[in-house]
Specification:
The complex is a heterodimer of chains A (343) and B (236). By secondary structure, chain A is of the alpha+beta class. Chain A contains eleven helices and 19 strands. Chain B folds into two domains: 146 residues, 60s Ribosomal Protein L30, Chain: A, CATH 3.30.1330.130; 68 residues, no CATH class. In chain B, strand 3 and strand 4 form a beta hairpin. In chain B, helix 2 crosses helix 4. At the A-B interface, helix 3 and helix 4 of A face helix 5 of B.
C-alpha cells in the first residue's frame, strides 16, 4: 500500500522509488535512487522536480514493489544467451546479449506477456543479428506497487518455451559454392557471384571450402553438389539458373542430387526466385541473379537463421511477405531498416 | 486423465461440432481437475468428490461437463447464469475450490499464436490448442459454501406448495404470506398463461404407435410473424 506524505515531513524517510529528472536535450535519469534517505538539502531539489508529496510504502503480504517485480520479470523473459543485472533503474531492467548470435523473440509469448496489465517488455525485432553486450530488450512493471499474482502470471507466460528472448550462436559452417551458367563456365563473362557469396558467408563466421563452376547442365551441377557434400560441406550456396528460362536447370540438379525438401519462391523482394532445399540436414540455398545487383537480398534474411539452426521451409519463406519489400535506398542501412523484420 | 486430443475429439462428437469453445472447455476442465487433485474425475471413486459450477451455457459448458463427467441430473453440475466464460471446480473431500476464468486477451492473441490459420474461428481453434494455460486462463482460489440441499444424494427436503399443491424438492420453495409456495406461484416464472390441457392420444404408453403427429393448439393464440414484403402500405 502507498501512503502519501508532505514533502516537508519526508526528511528521514526512505524513497520508495527512483525519482527521474529530465533536463531536455541534456539529461534523463534518476536524480534520486530508491532507498535514499531524504535529508534537508534534498527538499529544494525535489521541489524543483515538481514533487510536493512523496510515497511511503507499506507492502501488504500479497503486494510487490516495482523493482522486485522487474527482477522476477527479467529472470523469466531471459532465455539462453541473454543476460541481465538485478539493478533496476527507474524500475526498468535491460536484457542484453550474452553472446554474439541471432536474437530470437517468441513474439506470441511477448504479446501474451504484454497483455498482462501490470507489465511491459519491449525488444528488438526477432532474427536480428546481435553482438555480445547489445541491449536486446527491457522490461518493467507499470505500477509502483502491485499485487504479486499478475506478476507471477506474466512471468509464467514469459517462461514458456524457455523465455521470450534468447540469442543463438551461429554455427561455423563449411560452405560449398556452385556457380552455374554456361556463360561463366566457358569464360564468356567473368564471375562476380562467388566473391559476393564468399563475403556474406565469412562475415557470419563461416568458411568457404571451395567454389565449383558448372555449365547449364543438370548432371554436371548435380556432380558439383555431390562433390561438395563428399568433401564435408554442411552448407551449399548455388547461384544462377533459378529463373524461368529453359536453360535454368539448377532446381532439377538439386532434386537429382537427392533433395528431400525443396521450397522455391520467397515472399521477399529482392529474392522472389530464391530456393531453399535440404539434403538431409544440409541446407542448399539457391540464390537468384538479384544477388549480383542488390547489396541486400532474401539471402541476408535466411542465412543467419539457417546458421542459428532454424529449419527454413515454406512457412518461413511465406512469412517474409510482411516487411519483405526492400526500399532500395540509395545508401543501404540494412540491418537497421524494416527489411525482413515483419516475420 | 485421457490425453487432450482424445478428450477434444470425444467432446466435440458429444457436443455436435468442433469449435474454439470446445478447446477452451476441455482445457478448462483438465486444469480445474488438476488443481483440485482429481486425475480421473469420471472414475467411480472420484466422481462423487467433484462439483462443477459453469457460468455460461455455451459450447465451453458442454466440454467442461464432458471432461469432468459432471451432470445436471447427478447434481454435480451447477449452472450459474452469469454469462461469464468461467467454471469453478470443487473437491468435496478436501473443500478446495478453484475458479478458472477464460481470458479475453486470448481472443486477441489468437492471431499471434496461429498466424498461418485463416478465418477467425480456425485461428482461435488452432491458437487455443497452442497457448499455455497461463495465457488462456486466470485462476482464483475460492471458497464455495455448499448447502446440504444442494449436494448430490437423496432428496433431503420436500414441501408442498400452498397455492398449487406441487411438491417442491430440496428447499427451492419460497415463503409467501407465511406459507411455502413454489417459485412459479411465488415469483415471475419463465412461462406465462399456464393452462392444463388434454390431448388426443393421452393414453399412449411405450410399445404403442403415437397418434399425435402435430402439436395441438388448445386455444392459445400465437401470432405468426408477418413478412415485411407482404405488408401493404397505403400512400396518401
Amino acid at each position: 500500500m502507498l501512503k502519501k506524505i508532505n514533502l516537508q515531513d519526508a526528511v528521514g524517510t526512505q524513497l520508495a522509488h527512483d525519482i527521474t529528472e529530465i533536463r531536455p536535450g541534456e539529461f534523463k535519469g534518476a536524480a534520486f535512487r530508491k532507498g535514499h534517505t531524504v535529508c534537508n538539502e534534498d527538499i529544494c531539489h525535489l521541489q524543483k522536480l515538481g514533487k510536493n508529496h512523496l510515497y511511503v510504502i507499506d507492502l501488504a503480504e500479497d503486494e510487490i514493489h516495482e523493482n522486485e517485480a522487474a527482477a522476477i520479470l527479467a529472470g523469466a523473459l531471459a532465455g539462453e544467451g541473454v543476460a541481465w543485472e538485478n539493478n533496476p533503474r527507474e524500475g526498468k531492467i535491460g536484457l542484453t546479449a550474452a553472446i554474439d548470435g541471432l536474437l530470437q523473440v517468441n513474439t506470441a509469448a511477448l504479446a501474451a506477456f504484454n497483455m498482462v496489465d501490470e507489465v511491459m517488455c519491449a525488444t528488438l525485432h526477432t532474427h536480428t543479428l546481435v553482438q555480445k553486450g547489445k541491449l536486446v530488450g527491457a522490461t518493467r512493471a507499470i505500477p509502483l506497487v502491485m499485487k504479486r499474482a499478475p506478476i507471477e502470471r506474466a512471468a509464467a507466460i514469459a517462461r514458456q518455451n524457455g523465455g521470450v528472448l534468447s540469442v543463438r550462436a551461429l554455427r561455423k559452417a563449411m560452405a560449398g559454392i556452385v556457380v552455374t551458367g554456361s556463360e561463366v563456365y566457358h569464360g564468356l563473362i567473368e564471375d562476380r557471384f562467388a566473391p559476393i557469396l564468399k563475403e556474406k558467408v565469412t562475415a557470419l563466421g563461416s568458411e568457404v571450402a571451395g567454389v565449383t563452376f558448372a555449365p547449364d547442365d543438370a548432371d554436371l551441377i548435380r556432380q558439383a553438389i555431390e562433390s561438395h557434400l563428399e568433401n564435408g560441406c554442411d552448407l551449399l550456396l548455388l547461384s544462377g539458373g533459378m529463373s524461368v528460362d529453359p536453360d535454368d536447370v539448377t532446381r532439377l540438379a538439386i532434386r537429382q542430387a537427392g533433395a528431400t525438401e525443396m521450397h522455391y519462391g520467397a515472399s521477399a523482394l529482392p529474392g522472389a526466385m530464391f530456393l531453399v532445399a535440404w539434403i538431409g540436414d544440409v541446407p542448399l540455398l539457391g540464390v537468384p541473379a538479384c544477388g549480383l545487383y542488390h547489396r541486400t537480398t532474401v539471402l541476408d534474411l535466411v542465412l543467419p537463421r539457417i546458421l542459428a539452426g532454424e529449419r527454413i521451409g515454406m512457412k518461413e519463406l511465406a512469412f517474409f511477405g510482411h516487411g519483405g519489400l526492400c526500399q532500395d535506398c540509395p545508401e543501404c542501412v540494412f540491418p537497421n531498416c524494416a527489411f525482413g523484420k515483419g516475420s | 486423465m485421457k490425453p487432450f486430443n482424445e478428450l477434444l475429439e470425444t467432446s466435440a462428437a458429444a457436443h455436435g461440432h468442433l469449435c474454439p469453445g470446445q478447446v477452451v472447455g476441455v482445457r478448462m476442465a483438465m486444469l480445474g481437475c488438476r488443481l483440485i487433485g482429481l486425475d480421473e474425475p469420471t472414475r467411480r471413486e472420484q466422481i462423487k468428490k467433484l462439483i462443477v459450477y459453469v457460468e455460461m451455457d455455451r459450447c465451453t459448458a458442454d466440454a467442461v461437463a464432458h471432461v469432468t463427467g459432471a451432470k445436471l441430473g447427478r447434481r454435480s453440475l451447477k449452472f450459474m447464469d452469469y454469462g461469464i466464460m468461467a467454471a469453478t471446480f470443487v473437491n468435496l473431500e478436501t473443500g478446495k475450490a478453484f475458479r478458472v476464468v477464460s481470458t479475453e486477451e486470448a481472443r486477441d492473441l489468437a492471431v499471434v499464436y496461429a498466424p498461418e490459420a485463416s478465418g477467425k474461428s480456425q485461428q482461435q481453434l488452432t491458437a487455443y490448442c497452442r497457448m499455455p494455460d497461463s495465457v488462456l486462463f486466470r485462476v482464483q482460489q475460492v471458497r464455495v459454501p455448499i448447502k446440504p440441499v444442494d449436494l448430490p444424494g437423496p432428496t433431503r427436503r420436500k414441501v408442498t406448495c400452498n397455492l398449487c399443491g406441487q411438491v417442491i424438492r430440496d428447499g427451492r420453495e419460497v415463503i409467501r404470506d407465511g406459507g411455502y409456495v413454489c417459485r412459479p406461484c411465488g415469483e415471475n416464472p419463465y412461462f406465462s398463461d399456464a393452462r392444463e390441457i388434454t390431448w388426443t392420444d393421452m393414453n399412449w404408453r411405450p410399445g404403442e404407435v403415437p397418434e399425435l403427429d402435430a402439436p395441438y393448439d388448445h386455444g392459445h393464440h400465437f401470432e405468426k410473424p408477418r413478412k415485411r414484403g407482404a405488408e401493404v402500405i397505403a400512400l396518401r
